[in-house]
Write a structure and sequence with these properties.
5 helices, 0% strand, 82% helix, mainly alpha, 190 residues
């Protein structure tokens, strides 16, 4: 699941970049008042819709992923000693703080770019507003991708064996990356 969410975020970034390239072509053609420009506008919108939808899906699912996996871990650690439980709960809160702002801002930036594109198309705003929003959206998605990559990796180690994660982390050693089958052969989840 984590890999699928990272992949959809990467696809959204690729979609924004491809749509931006089309936007530059479109801007060049509009100055010529070419009939080809009308076709480019339609193509630009057709590429923008999937990019925005991928962004909305991936970033909202990242938020729900950390809520859901946090709930699973909380249920599993209910009987742990208080120090281990509190440590793990703090890690879960940190992972949500690490991923929620970039995911939320990326999601909102995708909607903003789309809305501003419509405003530029109707000549309500200058074209630079759409371009600036597009650049901001790509940068926000790249930030989200980086934060999500790190958080998914740590969350997977935590979910694999919360007690081992807590003990290794509190001792200062890096939690092991390989899955363990000490809990009924479940191995790595996520």
């Amino acid at each position: 699941m984590a890999l699928a969410l990272l992949l959809t975020t990467a696809l959204a970034i690729a979609g924004f970049l491809a749509t931006s390239a089309q936007g530059f072509q479109l801007a060049a053609r509009l100055t010529e008042a070419s009939p080809v420009a009308r076709g480019l506008v339609g193509q630009h919108v057709l590429w923008a819709i999937p990019a925005v939808l991928l962004s909305l899906f991936s970033q909202s699912m990242v938020i729900f992923y950390f809520i859901g996996t946090g709930r699973l871990v909380k249920d599993e650690i209910a009987g742990y000693p208080e120090t281990e439980r509190n440590f793990i709960l703090a890690v879960l809160r940190r992972l949500k703080r690490q991923t929620s702002p970039p995911a939320t801002l990326s999601l909102l930036s995708a909607v903003g770019v789309f809305v501003l594109g419509g405003a530029v198309h109707t000549h309500a705003l200058p074209s630079w507003t759409h371009l600036a929003a597009s650049v901001a959206a790509v940068l926000l998605h790249a930030w989200a991708f980086g934060e999500e990559w790190k958080a998914f990796a740590e969350n997977n180690r935590l979910m694999d064996d919360p007690r081992r994660y807590a003990r290794d982390s509190q001792r200062g050693s890096k939690p092991a990356l390989e899955p363990r089958s000490g809990r009924g052969g479940e191995g790595a989840r996520g």
